[in-house]
Specification:
This protein has 207 residues and is of the alpha/beta class. The protein has one domain: Spore Coat Polysaccharide Biosynthesis Protein SpsA, Chain A (Alpha-Beta Complex). It is 30% helix and 23% strand. The chain is built from 6 helices and 11 strands. Strands 1, 2, 3, 4, 6, 7, 8, 9 and 10 form a 9-stranded mixed sheet that branches. Strand 7 and strand 8 form a beta hairpin. Helix 3 packs antiparallel against helix 5. It is globular and about 45 Å long.
Length: 207
Amino acid sequence: MLLNGLNVRAFVMVVQEFPEKTAFIRQHFSEVGVEAENFWCISGGLSGLYTVHPYEVDDPGSGWRMGYGPTANWLSQYMLWTAMSFMPEDYFFQLELDTQFAPDWKARTELALSQTPKDFDVLFVGSCCAAGKESSVQVRGDVWEVKYPMCNHAMIIAKKALPVMLSTQRRVYAKMDISLNFHTFPSLKVYTVLPRIAGQFNTFLHD
C-alpha cells in the first residue's frame, strides 16, 4: 500500500477461531480502501497460554497476572514483528481485528507522514491515553511527540525499529502497549497523530 510515497505493507491481526470478526473487518477495510493482509494470531482461550509473571506496577504485592487474552495478544504481536523482520519492505502497518477507519483516513495518514520526521521508528495512527501528557510536543500539524501513547491498534512501524522491539520485549508480564512504554519506546523515535485517525469498533478510547 502506497502512503505518501512509502511502500507500507499492512497486516491485520486476526484469529482463526473468530471467523465472523475476520469477515467483518475484511469488509470494513474493503469499504474504506485499506489494503491489509491477514496475520493469523493465537487464540487466548483455545491455546490456554498464560504467564507466571505478575504485573504489580499499579498495585505492588498484589500478585495480579494478566489472563489468556492479553498473553496471546502479546505473543501474537511478537510473532508479527518477527515475521516482518524477514520481509523486504521498510515500513509496516500493524492493525488489529477491530480497527475502525474513517473514510478520509488515507488523506490524513499521508498528510501525517509528510509532517513526521523521516527517521521515525513508530507512528501511532490510532492511539489512546495520549492527550494531555506533560511531555507532549507538537512536531508539525497533527503530529506530536508523546511519551507515550497507549493502544496498538494502528501503528506504522519502520523496519529499523524491529530489532529494538524484539530485543526489549522479553518478559511477558504486562499488556504489550504498556510493556512497549516501559521497555522499548524510550529507545525509539515515536510519534502520534492527534486527534487519532483510527479508532476501535465497540471500544471507548480515552484521548
